[in-house]
Design goal:
Layout lengths: L3 E6 L6 H18 L6 E7 L4 E3 L5 E3 L1 E2 L7 E6 L5 H5 L2 H12 L1 E6 L3 H7 L7 E2 L6 H7 L4 E2 L5 E4 L2 E4 L4 H14 L1 H10 L13 H7 L5 H12 L7 H7 L4 H12 L3 H19 L4 H7 L5 H12 L3 H8 L2 E2 L2 E2 L12
Parallel strand pairs: 1-2, 1-6, 2-5, 6-7, 7-11, 8-9
Antiparallel strand pairs: 3-4, 10-11, 12-13
């Protein structure tokens, strides 16, 4: 194989970064690869060829969809603010479905996973999308297992990434699968990407931020919770901080946030623990204490129930930095390079 053919499907109103982020990673990898490697060759195709305007006004020059015939190494499908229109473009969706059968792997960024699902490519598989649209995706495509947390998910030949910039993380994972961890790390460093995030890293902090309520007493209570995770947080005390009765607080909190106060506290503790496991070398006991778990055993049970991993297993997979600098870990079990 003299080169890896990458075909990017573009359409009016797509997000420019969904496209330019991944292809800049691949282009940088090409430049670092050297003459003995197998470079990526990128082509743009569109039903709106030859000049396709992105949502930001950036114009991409593309060939007609027919130019995408023949074997494809990687088919890349972006998301965009015009996704609703793209989903109703039966010719585009059908072309994506046919092109996928000629592709070694198929990748999407953000809402691009909707187009893959619309083409029936993700039935029976795990996939992700932007956290703000995960419920909509799960409702629209019940045969797809939607992972609302991971920044990208690799299931067989399909790689779906979450919101916008995670397409860069996904592209680095593609480079790693094709050329090894050393080139992926060199590419990340050259692009001044301080951390190369692994697919299992969570969108969870964004979800928690998005859950901050508009109702001032509830929002204040949430902010107090996040500032005091190291302390016991009985619901009665949180209600008192919100100046509400316990019963009324529980009812309004669930209405505003979509979960109970107790569940919100536990999820917040786990989110903080994940951050500390990824970015510090604190002991498991120290992390349990800082996140407000009464005992390490309680921490283990809560963590395992939420993530299906022990804290030690999670750190082994996803810890990214140490006092000595970058920790590069390559785990074949974290992805399925095809």
């Amino acid at each position: 194989m003299s080169e890896r053919r990458v075909v990017v499907v573009v359409y009016e109103g797509a997000l420019a970064l969904d496209i330019t982020g991944p292809i800049e990673v691949l282009d940088t990898a090409n430049r670092l690869l050297g003459p003995s490697g197998t470079p990526y060759r990128t082509a743009f195709v569109s039903a709106d060829a030859p000049l396709v305007r992105m949502s930001s006004g950036v114009v991409v020059e593309a060939a007609p969809l027919e130019a995408g015939q023949g074997p494809i190494d990687t088919l890349l499908v972006p998301g965009g603010w015009s996704l609703h229109s793209a989903l109703h473009d039966r010719a585009l969706v059908s072309w994506i479905g046919r092109a996928a059968t000629r592709s070694r792997r198929v990748a999407s960024v953000c809402g691009g996973s909707f187009l893959l699902a619309e083409a029936g490519l993700l039935d029976g598989r795990r996939a992700t999308t932007h956290w703000a649209y995960s419920e909509a995706m799960a409702g629209r495509y019940p045969d797809v297992t939607v992972d609302a947390e991971s920044i990208f998910v690799w299931d067989g030949p399909f790689v779906t990434s979450a919101g916008v910039s995670t397409g860069i993380d996904m592209a680095l994972a593609l480079v790693e699968a094709d050329h090894g961890a050393a080139l992926a790390l060199e590419t990340a460093r050259f692009l001044v990407l301080f951390l190369k995030r692994h697919g299992g890293q969570s969108q969870f902090s964004a979800v928690l931020d998005a859950q901050l309520a508009d109702h001032p007493p509830i929002r204040a209570a949430q902010e107090w919770i996040l500032d005091n995770l190291h302390n016991p947080l009985p619901v009665a005390e949180i209600a008192r901080r919100a100046n509400m009765s316990l019963r009324n607080f529980a009812r309004v909190f669930r209405r505003e946030v979509g979960t109970t106060p107790g569940q919100y506290v536990e999820r917040s503790r786990i989110a903080r623990a994940r951050e500390l496991l990824e970015t510090t070398e604190l002991t498991i006991g120290q992390i349990a204490h800082r996140c407000g778990f009464a005992a390490p055993e309680t921490f283990f049970r809560s963590f395992g129930r939420t993530l299906g991993l022990t804290p030690k297993e999670y750190r082994h997979r996803f810890q990214l930095i140490s006092p000595s600098g970058f920790i590069d870990r390559h785990h074949e079990t974290d992805r399925n390079p095809v």
